[in-house]
Amino acid sequence: MALLEVEHLSHSFGEKVLYKDSSFELYKGEHMGIVGQNGAGKSTLIKILLGEILPDKGSVKWQNGVTIGKLDQYAIVDEEQTIFDYLRTAFKDLYKIEEDLNKLYEEMAINYNENILKKVSRYQELLEERNFYAIDSTVHKVASGLGITALGLDTSLKNLSGGQRAKVILAKLLLQNPEVLVLDEPTNFLDKEHVEWLSEYLTSFKGAFIIVSHDFDFLEKVTTCICDIEFNKIKKYKGSYSSFLKQKELLREDYIRQYNSQQKEIKKLEDYIAKNKVRASTAQMAKSREKKLEKMEKIEKPSFTSKPHFRFSCVPSTAQVILEVKDLEVGYYYPLLPKMKFDVRNEEKLVITGFNGIGKSTLLKTLIGEIQPISGSFKFSETIKSIGYYEQDLKWENPEDIPLNIISREFPKLTQKQVRKHLADCGIKKEHVMQPIATLSGGEQAKVKLCKIILRPCNLLILDEPTNHLDADTKEELQKALTEFNGTVILVSHEASFYKDLATRVVNIKDLCVKKIN
Q1: How far apart are the first and last CA of the chain?
Q2: How far apart are CA 98 and CA 104, in angstroms?
Q3: Are 94 and 130 in contact (CB under 8 A)?
């Protein structure tokens, strides 16, 4: 019997159809990845499966009594709690049993009888079965695996960054050990070492899980089946991610043949109708073909035929050194790292790596002037007139704003037609140009942000995890654009497969410090 049955699912967002009459199942022990291009409806599908959105048609049936754990990076938490105390709440049912057990011991001291003894025995067995007396070591093991112990387990949740908080919430979910895990982009805030740990954890996870991810190396390691969203259908493939790609390529070729064949038939019908509907002798036949055309179930245009295209405009710089950093300390209330000293040379493509929460994003925000340095200094060359900055968080002044207005306001000299073209070049479909930005997928929002950077010529690009929400085609195009960019790039990324061919220098942030840290 399936843990989850999805039958005849159909759902649209505005005029955009996401899925039509799609069905699939999740069985016990299956490790499912959900993939698709940006805007295909991956996160929406997760919300439908969890009952947060009602589908237009179809049904979602979970097996009675199955425990489901979802990754909610924005969950409401007690901000005053320490990380350790918060993680221990994953076992609150066991602590309640311990509390009841202690009350039984007190009762036994006053009124000893066989019934109480049986209850005590049952509770003790339950606690031992669930490994209650090893909770603290279990918490430390998961916290260490995800890089949380480096933050200090006695740190209050209120002092965590968004990425750090997301890791702590993920750790609690893993500690709860539900029968089914539902994870939407769990690796976005994890470093390479912690992604590796999570891969091993999930590979040996005895329950089932459903994961949305754009990290295809990660999916290859952890999944046993793939659900692909394309052409308004959700199709399930058995096997690894690489096996899915091979199967899909064959189906794509067949789909393109069917689409091209139908387009020829449509053109033939349209031409006949246009030529014959005004002539009395052939009007009836033209009308018959019109009805045939109306009833025809149109095959969706293959979305993979139009990749996004990025090209960063470069303002030449004659300086040898673009940036000098001397004894710089970064942080909000206290330094996150020892003092840093380093230079960035002209046309260098510097990649900065290191554990999440160590201070990479804080360094970039300091360099662009968003936050003040605690001490020390940094100086850009006078030839740096414009910096293109990509912030990893998807934040907008007005979530109801639409992409067309966001770009038009930033570049008022552009006509609406020009703005639409630039957005289209960046992979924003025409139906999304007039849609509130907050309702777009993470990948589509990222493309709007990239469009803003591309339209302003600059000497220096400072990019903080730009690939977090991007699909494979978009990552490939961004990688190509950064490689071709003649200016200087400072890139923070955890995705080695993305930066390894474009970087001229890769450094761990701790190696930029004057006093080396372990």
Answers
A1: 50
A2: 10
A3: yes
